[in-house]
C-alpha cells in the first residue's frame, strides 16, 4: 500500500516540477497551462482513491480469513478437535487446563441416568450405549483443570453407528442436574435418547 502511494505521489510531484520549472511567459499562458491548485487537488484525490482501494481490499481479506468454526459432526473439524455443541474445539475449551491457579481439579465417580432407565457410576473415559449400540456415549477425559466459579460441566462424546460402522460423532456438554436434548440417529428415526449427570466426586489439590 505505501509503495503504491509513494509511486503516485512521486509521479504527480514530477509532473508539477516539470510544469513549475519550465518558464512560461505570463503573456503566453493559455487554457492548457496547469495551475498549481489543480495539481495539488489531483494529488490529494489520487492519494484518497488509493487509500480507499487498499482499505477495501484489507476488509475483504479479513472477511476471508475469518474461518467458519461451526460444525455438525467432528469430521467437520481439524484432526485434533471435536464438534462441541455445534462448534469445533478442544477439551481445553471446556476445561481450563492451561490457566494458572493455586489448585488443580479433576472429577470421577460420575453418576449418569438415561432415558432407558439406567443409572451408571462411571469414571472419565467410560460410557455405555443405547439401541443395541447404534448410539454409544462416553465421558471425555482431560488433564487437571482450574476450578471455575460454577459447577464443572461434563463433556460427553456421542458416537453414532450403523452395523458397526461409525456414521458420526460429536460432543455435548451437560451441567449438573440438567437433562440433555433429545439424542437421535442419522438413519434410525425411532431413537430418542437422553442423558443426565446427577453428580460426581470432584477433588482438587
SSE layout:
Blueprint lengths: L1 H20 L14 H30 L16 E3 L2 E3 L14 E11 L4 E4 L4 E4 L4 E5 L5 E2 L7 E9 L2 E10 L20 E10 L1
Antiparallel strand pairs: 1-2, 3-4, 3-7, 3-10, 5-6, 6-8, 8-9
Helix and strand element order: HHEEEEEEEEEE
Major sheet attributes: 4 strands, antiparallel
The number of strands is 10
What's the overall average pLDDT, rounded? 81
Q: Beta-sheet strand percentage?
A: 25-35%
Terminal Cα span: 55 Å
Helix and strand content put the structural class at: alpha+beta
Total number of helices: 2
Radius of gyration: 33 Å
Provide the helix percentage: 10-25%
Shape: elongated
Q: What low-confidence regions span 5 or more consecutive residues with pLDDT below 50?
A: 17-23
Tally of domains: 2
Briefly say what this structure is.
The protein contains two helices and ten strands, in the order H-H-E-E-E-E-E-E-E-E-E-E. With 205 residues, the protein is α+β, with helices and mostly antiparallel strands. It is elongated, with a radius of gyration of 33 Å.
How does this model look, in words?
With 205 residues, the protein is an alpha+beta fold. It folds into two domains: 2-65; 74-204, no CATH class. The protein is 24% helix and 30% strand. The protein is built from two helices and ten strands, in the order ααββββββββββ. Strands 3, 4, 7 and 10 form a four-stranded antiparallel sheet that branches. Strands 5-6-8-9 form a four-stranded antiparallel sheet, with no helix packed on it. A two-stranded antiparallel sheet has the order 1-2. The model is unreliable at 17-23 (pLDDT under 50).
Amino acid at each position: 500500500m505505501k509503495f503504491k502511494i509513494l509511486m503516485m505521489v512521486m509521479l504527480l510531484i514530477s509532473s508539477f516540477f516539470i510544469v513549475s520549472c519550465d518558464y512560461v511567459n505570463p503573456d503566453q499562458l493559455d487554457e492548457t497551462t496547469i495551475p498549481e491548485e489543480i495539481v495539488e487537488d489531483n494529488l490529494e484525490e489520487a492519494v484518497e482513491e488509493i487509500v480507499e482501494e487498499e482499505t477495501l481490499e484489507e476488509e475483504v481479506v479479513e472477511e476471508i480469513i475469518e474461518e467458519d468454526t461451526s460444525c455438525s459432526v467432528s469430521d467437520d473439524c481439524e484432526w485434533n478437535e471435536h464438534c462441541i455443541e455445534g462448534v469445533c474445539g478442544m477439551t481445553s475449551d471446556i476445561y481450563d487446563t492451561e490457566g494458572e491457579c493455586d489448585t488443580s481439579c479433576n472429577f470421577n465417580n460420575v453418576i449418569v441416568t438415561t432415558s432407558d432407565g439406567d443409572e451408571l457410576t462411571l469414571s472419565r473415559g467410560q460410557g455405555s450405549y443405547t439401541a443395541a449400540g447404534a448410539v454409544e456415549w462416553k465421558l471425555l477425559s482431560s488433564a487437571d483443570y482450574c476450578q471455575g466459579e460454577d459447577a464443572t460441566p461434563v463433556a460427553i462424546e456421542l458416537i453414532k453407528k450403523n452395523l458397526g460402522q461409525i456414521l458420526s460423532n460429536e460432543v455435548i456438554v451437560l451441567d449438573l442436574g440438567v437433562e440433555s436434548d433429545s439424542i437421535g440417529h442419522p438413519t434410525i428415526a425411532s431413537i430418542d435418547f437422553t442423558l443426565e449427570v446427577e453428580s460426581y466426586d470432584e477433588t482438587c489439590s
